[in-house]
Design a protein that fits this description.
sugar transport; mainly alpha; globular
């Protein structure tokens, strides 16, 4: 792989990571707070605020396209067209023939988002500055053609997500301790890939597998613990704060460049997952994909177990962050598989 190709793919990863974080964070951080405040006073005000934060998630495909365009130094029109192209081909908007209406889901399929962003960016680079005065006419048309291609590939990209869900679903049929460990490890890895852990949680845990959903939540916590500690060591304090608040996908490019980081993440997840079983950490399909974002995971487990504050603190904070600290020192300082700079994000 040439340096230009690596740089281009790195731009796609960084653009996707920033777009996802920018779109998801407002709702992730504030939804629980607004829900609680709405029970105390001004319920209609906080309902409106919650809706606004939720709706921001629908902008993720546009954000990804625009940010990728900015990284590639596109002109405003070119970046805007790429953003619109990614939105149209993302799967975020679909036509419901039965209701004869368009319906939307946040983000769409992130695999397809990245594919459309790659093709759209390459085509814009190819025709850049070639249309002269009629660029405003022909460039959006090219974007529409790329979006149409994205709609063709969408079912196949969704199939990839379903395949991963099928593999992880097999873990739920195993002995409970092994199940918790493997689900925690799987979700710890998925959160630093284009897979939506929120969607995966909904797919996998619509039944009453509360233990499995709790393990999934701890997987996200494990990844957050490793990456927060790592970025703190790399003097990227802004990234540390962002990760704690839920911006774990910010580190997708780092994990792609340094897959050795997965050893630290998997080790932390395995131990955290086992401890979660013994501490009776549970969840639902709604909390499985969030981790400690907005304290959704801890609060849901606390609510479902009717107490057990010590267990919650141990499982969500003490154990994952303690194990992450030791695992990072072991793989980084003892085995020297990577350096602290591996955690330094390029997109902040």
């Amino acid at each position: 792989m040439t340096k230009k190709t690596k740089d281009f793919l790195n731009i796609i990863l960084n653009g996707t990571a920033l777009g996802v974080v920018a779109g998801l964070i407002p709702n992730a951080v504030l939804s629980t707070l607004f829900k609680y405040l709405g029970t105390l006073f001004a319920p209609s005000l906080f309902a409106t605020l919650s809706q606004a934060m939720y709706l921001l998630q629908f902008s993720i495909p546009v954000l990804v396209g625009v940010i990728v365009g900015q990284f590639l130094k596109f002109k405003p029109l070119e970046s805007s067209v790429l953003g619109a192209t990614v939105l149209a081909g993302s799967g975020s908007l679909t036509y419901n023939a039965a209701n004869k209406a368009w319906t939307g889901v946040p983000m769409g399929d992130l695999f397809n988002v990245m594919l459309v962003a790659i093709i759209g960016a390459l085509l814009i680079l190819l025709v850049k500055d070639k249309f002269g005065a009629v660029t405003i006419i022909f460039l959006p048309i090219i974007g529409g053609l790329v979006a149409a291609f994205g709609l063709v590939t969408l079912p196949y990209m969704k199939g990839l997500t379903k395949l991963l869900a099928t593999i992880i679903f097999e873990f739920t049929t195993l002995q409970p301790i092994l199940m918790c460990m493997l689900i925690t490890m799987a979700f710890a890895c998925l959160i630093v890939t284009p897979v939506s852990t929120v969607a995966m949680g909904i797919i996998l845990f619509t039944n009453e597998n509360y233990i499995g959903a709790g393990a999934a939540t701890l997987g996200l916590v494990s990844a957050a613990a490793v990456l927060a500690i790592g970025t703190f060591r790399a003097n990227s304090r802004g990234a540390t704060a962002a990760i704690i608040l839920g911006a774990i996908k910010l580190m997708m490019p780092n994990c792609a460049r340094k897959p050795q980081l997965f050893l630290t993440i998997l080790t932390t997840a395995a131990i955290t997952g086992i401890s979660g079983y013994f501490l009776n950490i549970v969840g639902t399909h709604e909390s499985a994909g969030f981790g400690i974002i907005g304290l959704i995971g801890p609060l849901k487990s606390y609510e479902m177990t009717h107490g057990g504050l010590l267990q919650i603190v141990l499982a969500f904070f003490v154990i994952p962050f303690g194990v992450a600290f030791l695992a990072d020192r072991f793989y980084c300082n003892v085995l020297k598989l990577y350096t602290v700079d591996a955690y330094k994000p390029e997109n902040l």
